[in-house]
Design goal:
single chain; TF_FadR/GntR_C; two-stranded antiparallel sheet; Arc Repressor Mutant, subunit A; DNA-binding transcription factor activity; 2 domains; DNA-binding; Four Helix Bundle (Hemerythrin (Met), subunit A); mainly alpha; DNA binding; 3% strand; 2 strands; WH_DNA-bd_sf
Length: 279
């Protein structure tokens, strides 16, 4: 039997796009070609129906796709219609995290990339921070120093990541900023899913606070090389603590028989009677 060419096999396995998806893609190309920006309006439903020769339901589905992607807002009323938004990073970040959720990602894999990118981002921010940025960074460090107890310790992990998000928002390179914020979001998810704030690790807390303090001092001095060195050490230290924490937690679960989804992180779907669960 003659085997079909690989390219034909791959193309045959791809899902054929729906008409609404093709229309939404065409609208996106038009937005880019016309250099439309936030606040500009798309043609009304009737004009789009005539242009694409499509039913109202298909055009509305196409617009809904763009709304879900954060590209437009659909407004009702006499002055309603589709208004273009400048998309935030959250929808794209959420979709990528959903994809990676099924890849069994761990802290080591995140830090393999984070160690490289976070250092470059840190250097790119030197000389760009204004006094308001410094105030936010220092307020973040003060909040971290006041945390105590399990819930506060969880909050502390989030605050430590937020310190890096503050730096990312000042980054002049939007792609680098997105990648670093995305990796921080991945770590935030790991904190929740793996309860990575338990057990308490005072050494990790103190190390993070010290590195953040040194970074702020180096930023105020606009010392690029010092910023690079401190962030590189910080990322290597954070990777070491994450690895040790995951090993310790795996051992605890082995002995306790605990699951990853306990207490307030347990999904309500675990309580669904088995007859309602599809196999």
């Amino acid at each position: 039997m003659t085997q079909a060419p690989a390219s034909k096999t791959v193309s045959a396995s791809r899902r054929r796009p729906k008409l609404a998806e093709l229309i939404s893609d065409d609208i996106k190309r038009w937005i880019a070609a016309e250099s439309l920006g936030e606040g500009d309006r798309l043609p009304n439903e009737k004009a789009l129906m005539e242009l694409y020769g499509s039913a109202k339901a298909t055009v509305r589905e196409a617009l809904k796709i763009l709304e879900v992607e954060g590209l437009i807002t659909l407004k009702t009323g006499p002055k309603g219609g589709a208004v273009i938004n400048q998309p935030g990073m959250e929808p794209a970040s959420r979709m990528l995290r959903n994809f990676l959720h099924f890849q069994q990602l761990d802290g080591k894999q995140v830090y393999q990339l984070r160690k490289l990118l976070e250092v470059e981002l840190a250097v790119s921010v030197v000389g760009r921070l204004i006094e308001n940025d410094f105030q936010q960074l220092e307020a973040n460090m003060s909040a971290c120093a006041c945390c105590g107890g399990e819930e506060d310790h969880r909050r502390q992990r989030f605050l430590e990541l937020e310190f890096h998000q503050l730096l990312a928002r000042a980054c002049p390179n939007p792609l680098l900023a997105f990648m670093c914020q995305f990796l921080n979001d991945m770590l935030r998810d790991l904190v929740v899913i793996k309860k990575a704030y338990v057990p308490e690790r005072k050494q990790f807390d103190h190390a993070n606070q010290d590195y953040h303090r040194q970074l702020v001092e180096a930023y105020r001095a606009e010392d690029t090389q010092r910023v690079r060195n401190i962030m590189a050490e910080h990322m290597a230290d954070a990777e070491h603590h994450m690895s040790a924490l995951e090993t310790e937690m795996a051992a605890q679960m082995l002995f306790s028989g605990d699951s990853l989804h306990t207490h307030h992180h347990r999904s309500k779907l675990h309580d669904l009677p088995t007859e309602h669960v599809s196999v």
